[in-house]
């Protein structure tokens, strides 16, 4: 995690904390379902129900968690979420029935839902004007962390004993504790003062629910949140498509994941560095829509062709889908840091996260239940849906630019500048 990815000081500490945390994510994701089915002895239906219910119940927590980060400072909320995840890893060792699993998963989902807006608010304070670029760099680091964690999990899965799974659960806990410890090295940013004008430019003290009253941002959240299903294409749709609908070899699933990770590492920062303003974000969503449509079209052609042709189409499709993914996430970064006022970053981030969470919760039914049942036509339908959403990006960006206030709170910029040089402003307490 050298200076190419983060400047020395608080930026690098934040990046390293994220890297360590995502190693833990890469460890726990592959084993969570297997552990409860193979070791604890629960049924697949019970595990699936616990994961689904906990995920749905956690969605509404994102907005109040973001507002809390604005009110008491983002570091405290982030620390609470890492503490929650640490407890989750240890709790795996004691789960014996469905209700215990549901309780553990609810804690896990709640911690994850709260971490997203809090980390966004922290990054806004640390990064200042460079927050969008730093978030692109963090995404690369997160991909590397998940990949490393997955390799570690693969060793335990190959050993396939109760002890190996429990060791992995404890390894996850250690990564979360380490990430929590690193947060003590970050400034304890204090809440920013609220200006005497709404973010939409109207007079009067800003509402505590300002994000929910910002119509332009809500429009972005609906579009960006719906487009979040593109993340699930790789996670849940491609593997089933390759194995059950095409003649491509089974190892092609690994090719898809490796190619996606490699392209994100190589291109995310380069492309993301050019997408900074709200206007850039709107253009990026439109480009994402076109790339995702073409990628889905390539995937749709894999059915009914020889294995070598299916493999070639998979490579082409994955390149296009990954480019679409990169443009999409870069566009969301530009919107989610460009539209919120600095004093309400967490609240805005919480709204965007809640909508995206709802879309991801619906994605399995949409992608597996509907799209794949239609075969190649389903792929085209998903691609067309994503294109239509992306095409609205420039119009929403113009709306957002038009309704932003002319001035921005300078306290966030001062704090971010001081933090990026490794010092603290008078408004912060450093542990």
Which terms summarize this structure?
single chain, 431 residues, mainly alpha, 17 helices, 2 strands, 77% helix, 1% strand
Question: Can you give a write-up of this model?
Answer:
The chain has a two-stranded antiparallel ribbon with strand order 1-2. Mean pLDDT is 86; it is low at 199-205 and 407-431. It is mainly α and 431 residues long. The protein contains 17 helices and two strands. Helix 1 runs antiparallel to helix 5, helix 6 (131-159) runs antiparallel to helix 7 (162-183) and helix 9 packs parallel to helix 14. 77% of the residues lie in helices and 1% in strands.
What are the low-pLDDT stretches, counting only 5+ consecutive residues below 50?
Answer: 199-205, 407-431
Assess the beta-strand content as a share of residues: under 5%
Distance between the termini: 23 Å
| Helix coverage percent | over 70%
| Gross geometry | globular
Report the count of strand segments. Answer: 2
Q: What average pLDDT do the residues reach?
A: 86
Decide which structural class fits the backbone. Answer: mainly alpha
Query: How many helical elements?
Result: 17
What gyration radius follows from the Cα positions, in whole Å? 21 Å
Order of helices and strands: HHHHHHHEHHHHHHHHHHE
Please give the largest β-sheet. Answer: 2 strands, antiparallel
Across the major sheet, the strand order is 1-2
């Amino acid at each position: 995690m050298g200076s190419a990815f983060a400047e020395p000081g608080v930026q690098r500490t934040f990046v390293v904390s994220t890297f360590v945390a995502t190693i833990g994510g890469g460890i726990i994701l592959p084993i969570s379902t297997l552990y409860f089915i193979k070791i604890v002895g629960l049924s697949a239906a019970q595990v699936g129900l616990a994961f689904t219910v906990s995920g749905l119940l956690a969605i509404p927590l994102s907005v109040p968690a973001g507002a809390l980060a604005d009110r008491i400072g983002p570091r405290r909320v982030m620390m609470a979420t890492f503490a929650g995840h640490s407890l989750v890893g240890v709790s795996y060792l004691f789960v014996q029935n469905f209700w215990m699993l549901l309780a553990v998963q609810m804690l896990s989902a709640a911690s994850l839902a709260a971490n997203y807006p809090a980390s966004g608010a922290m990054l806004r304070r640390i990064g200042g004007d460079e927050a969008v670029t730093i978030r692109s760099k963090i995404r690369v680091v997160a991909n590397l962390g998940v990949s490393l964690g997955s390799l570690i999990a693969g060793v335990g899965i190959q050993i396939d004993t109760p002890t190996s799974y429990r060791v992995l659960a404890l390894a996850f806990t250690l990564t979360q504790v380490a990430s929590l410890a690193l947060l003590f090295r970050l400034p304890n940013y204090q809440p920013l003062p609220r200006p005497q004008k709404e973010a939409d430019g109207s007079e009067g003290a800003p509402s505590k629910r300002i994000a929910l009253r910002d119509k332009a941002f809500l429009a972005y959240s609906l579009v960006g949140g719906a487009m979040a299903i593109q993340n699930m294409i790789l996670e849940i749709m491609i593997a089933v498509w390759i194995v059950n609908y095409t003649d491509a070899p089974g190892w092609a699933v690994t090719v898809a994941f490796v190619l996606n990770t490699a392209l994100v590492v190589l291109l995310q920062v380069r492309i993301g560095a050019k997408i900074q303003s709200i206007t850039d974000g709107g253009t990026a969503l439109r480009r994402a829509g076109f790339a995702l449509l073409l990628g889905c079209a390539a995937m749709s052609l894999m059915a009914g062709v020889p294995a070598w042709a299916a493999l070639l189409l998979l490579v082409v499709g994955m390149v296009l889908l990954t480019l679409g993914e990169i443009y999409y996430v870069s566009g969301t970064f530009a919107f989610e840091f460009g539209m919120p006022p600095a004093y309400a970053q967490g609240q805005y981030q919480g709204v965007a996260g809640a909508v995206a969470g709802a879309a991801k919760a619906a994605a399995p039914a949409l992608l597996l239940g509907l799209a794949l049942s239609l075969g190649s036509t389903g792929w085209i339908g998903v691609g067309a849906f994503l294109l239509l959403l992306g095409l609205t990006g420039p119009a929403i960006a113009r709306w957002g630019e038009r309704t932003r206030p002319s001035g921005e709170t300078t306290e966030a910029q001062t704090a971010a500048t001081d933090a990026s040089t490794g010092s603290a402003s008078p408004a912060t307490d450093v542990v």
